[in-house]
Amino acid sequence: MFSKILIANRGEIAVRIIKTCRRLGIATVVVYSEADADSLAVEMADEAVFIGPAPAAESYLVADKIVAACRETGAQAVHPGFGFLSENAGFARRLAQEGIVFIGPNPDAIAAMGDKIESKKFAARAGVSTVPGHVGEIEDTAHAVTISEEIGYPVMIKASAGGGGKGIRVAWNRKDVEEGFPAVRAEAKASFGDDRIFIEKFIESPRHIEIQVLGDKHGHVVHLFERECSIQRRNQKVIEEAPSPLLDEATRKAMGDQAVALAKAVGYDSAGTVEFVAGQDRSFFFLEMNTRLQVEHPVTELITGVDLVEQMIRVAAGEPLPFAQADLKIDGWAVESRIYAEDPYRGFLPSIGRLVRYSPPPEGRVEGAVVRNDAGVREGDEISMFYDPMISKLSTWGRTREAAIDAMGEALERFHIEGLGHNVPFLSAVMDEPRFRSGKLATSYIKDQYPEGFRGVEPDSFQTDLFIAAACAMHQTLSDRAWPGRGRGDWIVNLGGADHPVRLSGDGRSWALELTDEGRALTLSDVDWKPGRPTFSAVLEGRPFTAQVRPAAEGFVIRHRAAEARVLVLTPVSAALHKRLPPKKAADTAKLVLSPMPGLVVSLSVVEGQEVKSGETVAVIEAMKMQNIIRAERDGVVKSVGPKEGDSVAADEVLVEFA
Among 50, 81, 354, 458, which residue is least crowded by beta carbons within 10 Å? Predict the structure, then answer.
């Protein structure tokens, strides 16, 4: 066994690997860029080596710097995590030449399966059913258009060396290819150092199901069942679960057997994932093989009890697998939610910034379920524009799918983040959404369920009562503190424009509310809140909850799961005056093109005096390795252009003003 391992990665996966190494008594070294100098991984590792500027192409993707760090520290092996150099056969061969063990598959297996173009050629020769497409290299945009029209729209444009949802676009017509092909090629070059692209038929309403495989250096290969990763946006997985609600035992066995056969055919000797696109009728086609640890591996670990990182390390050290296929069983159900620094109310665009508050839910066994949070951040850390926008991966386990989903909903309630946009409200909405809970999934789920984008959800009857009760309790607590013994108990609660007269009594820990106009009474007990605290926990009518709260003029903004409202708590006199206030007018931004997110201006397509039509490209903004095309929303003549190419811009910064 190794005594020291270098982790050639960052963020949550670096922290994840460190935790297993600590348990095994293995010392760890992490490499870090300028942006990660104060990271949690650097703090936790036994040693840390600086490798250069923030852009990955100048640090994490430079093999020479990784090798030099191994030499400097005496690390015997390298765990690449996922992304960066994890599927680079050349890097694996370089380590072998240097006498350093690569904790991953052998270079030949990476070359055969890790490259998306070569994997499809190999699968075709092996008789594996694959999605129709063009598996050769594509010369330029014109060539891409020709191929796309031969295959038939819609098509998927994918980076050959891609992964993690980067370097993928779906093209529905010729214009999409003309715009998407160069964008994907640029993303591929920036993220993977390889700009080769391939195109395949995009199968509509598919499901994304993958099989986790694990092989050793003695010819043994097993599968650890499947994960369903159909909840995606922009081809980036958002929610995963294991097992899949689609599969029956026969299909599960067929997919597992095919995945194992493919792995054996290439001499696979580490953890890897064989991905399939599946139809609602349980038909399935080989899509690709990821020759690395997957982001979503925690759900497999939760249902099998197998530490995949540990097994990768042991296999790399030459140990045989300690179990056979017959020893592996599915125990319960697990769900993973990826917590991203992005604004779901703005089309899930990246939202960089500092984690002013970061308070995840408690981990471990919670009321019959298990909560696990894989994170590489702490409160006060900054989410950089240079890397993936993931904050953490929240996973829950339960005896049944319903139990795991319920546990996830409750854990998301307790997850508090401030300082930047995040997708927790959206994830909460999915956990409560009937179609998701029924298991009728597809990769088009988000587009199907939220065709106009995510706007939150309307509060149900319980949440309406929750907002009223929590606001009254907080307001009364503040009143009692300001005027001891003089606080009133009769309030008008304004919620969504409607007034709710409330008579309140209690002692701060428990409250009784009488909704006088409705003839109803509510009981709020076990209140856990103090002024200044951003979460309010209590039990309303026997149902426990946690809400996110922040003060607002004469009231509070309260969010429970995906429902949010501004709640005003007023005296009867103040309530009467509020009715007479004139409505606020929204600012007129019709003549402005605003940056929807913070990022770097890659290109500007307009100049002062230019006539622009609605839908034409104005600029390309890059953030977190993704290029986003900004289009004009109206016809007009350009009056002024704000930033220059290469400038950094903030969210809502003016890019172009029309005359």
Answer: 458
